[in-house]
Amino acid sequence: MPLQLEVKDFGAIGDGIVKDTLAIQQAIDAGAEQGLPVVISPGTYLVGSLFLKEGSKLRFAQGATLLGSTDLSDYPEIPTRVAGVEMMWPAAVLNAIEVNNIEISGHGKIDGQGSHWWDLYCGPDKESGLRVDYDKKGLRWIADYLVKRPRACLIYKVEHVTISDLTFERAGFWNLQITYAKHVLVSGLTIRDNHGPSTDGIDIDSSSHVRITECDVSCGDDCIVIKSGRDGDGYRVNKIAEHIEIDHCHIRSGYGVTLGSEVSGGIRDVYVHDITFENSDCGLRMKSSKERGGFMEDVVVENLQMRNVQFPFSWIMDWHNSYNRKLFDNIDELPEDWQAVARQVPEHLQMTKVRNIRISHVNATLDADYALPARAFDLVAFPEKPMENISFSHCRIEAREFGRIVAVNDLRFDDVVVSVAAENDGSNDTFDNR
């Protein structure tokens, strides 16, 4: 009896031209049935959606690449959650859905051929594509859901998953999405060449007992992000994101380590430590909107090294109104998916509560020739629901401007030194409202 199965033994070609979806899926099915690992041999395998089975062990050999098809019909629509809203949407390139005890490993690659999907959304110039059509109609709030783009890897309603050593690049949408999952370990991933819209690195969504460690991330949106549902649909599902550790990672571009903006189910018990940021837009970011509700609490952050980071601490509770404000006359007349996105949190529960955040041992520096904006703090909440019990200790921050502190109670600075070169530039209040 073999110790493992090879995808080429099931007819996979690996030339990047012939679609290998069926052959690799047959190998995955056989591996699960026989209790054997499945090895993706060196080669480039053009595929649509692949689905792991209970107990699957998928191993990428060095030089093995899953190349995502650019044909949307190769990704069957499934019930899933997209940017905090449950709806039918295309499956990812690689999927683990309602199966447990999964291992994905090896020094191979998932390449989503993202430029095809990015151009569909915003055009090669990032100022055209379908997104522009929706913007002109005042439909920015629904555009991300209507322009359907495959994710690279989806982990959904699973327990006990390990993912290690892979490279993700050029994702059509998010790279690695972990939703409604428990006991997940992600280690040693490299995420790069993701400069298109909504190319989040790793999304931890309404999941618990998740650790992200020793990952190297460069992307066009949030690098490592924690979420728990958008607005009324997130409130309906009501699944918290908690017991999460992010450590010993290297952030090279994108919006840093983020909580939000979908937080309607709440986020708590987060430990972020020993992170290096270089040339990223943000360091530790928290974002929400008036409509979200929910909370972010009991967050400990320590031992951060930041070099040339524009916004080391960007915590904005009324972020990006054009994305968050929904414009419609009668919700009952909207398509079903639109209604899911438009659903609201009860008014008395709106606005996100931020409390019990402890930051310590941060060193943020700027090179002598650094030319971009640099704002030390944006801590901005609502007077009706201020942030509470926020502490910074043992921090050294170099910045162009100090920034804003609005509606924050019990804010403490202990051994914090901030060096500021100029007055605030108001254009930086909405730096990423794209």
From TrEMBL:
<dbReference type="Pfam" id="PF12708">
    <property type="entry name" value="Pect-lyase_RHGA_epim"/>
</dbReference>
<dbReference type="InterPro" id="IPR011050">
    <property type="entry name" value="Pectin_lyase_fold/virulence"/>
</dbReference>
<protein>
    <submittedName>
        <fullName>Glycoside hydrolase family 28 protein</fullName>
    </submittedName>
</protein>
<comment type="similarity">
    <text>Belongs to the glycosyl hydrolase 28 family.</text>
</comment>
<dbReference type="Pfam" id="PF00295">
    <property type="entry name" value="Glyco_hydro_28"/>
</dbReference>
<dbReference type="InterPro" id="IPR000743">
    <property type="entry name" value="Glyco_hydro_28"/>
</dbReference>
<keyword id="KW-0378">Hydrolase</keyword>
<dbReference type="InterPro" id="IPR006626">
    <property type="entry name" value="PbH1"/>
</dbReference>
<keyword id="KW-0326">Glycosidase</keyword>
<dbReference type="GO" id="GO:0016787">
    <property type="term" value="F:hydrolase activity"/>
</dbReference>
<dbReference type="InterPro" id="IPR012334">
    <property type="entry name" value="Pectin_lyas_fold"/>
</dbReference>
<dbReference type="InterPro" id="IPR024535">
    <property type="entry name" value="RHGA/B-epi-like_pectate_lyase"/>
</dbReference>
<feature type="domain" description="Rhamnogalacturonase A/B/Epimerase-like pectate lyase">
    <location>
        <begin position="6"/>
        <end position="49"/>
    </location>
</feature>
<dbReference type="InterPro" id="IPR051801">
    <property type="entry name" value="GH28_Enzymes"/>
</dbReference>
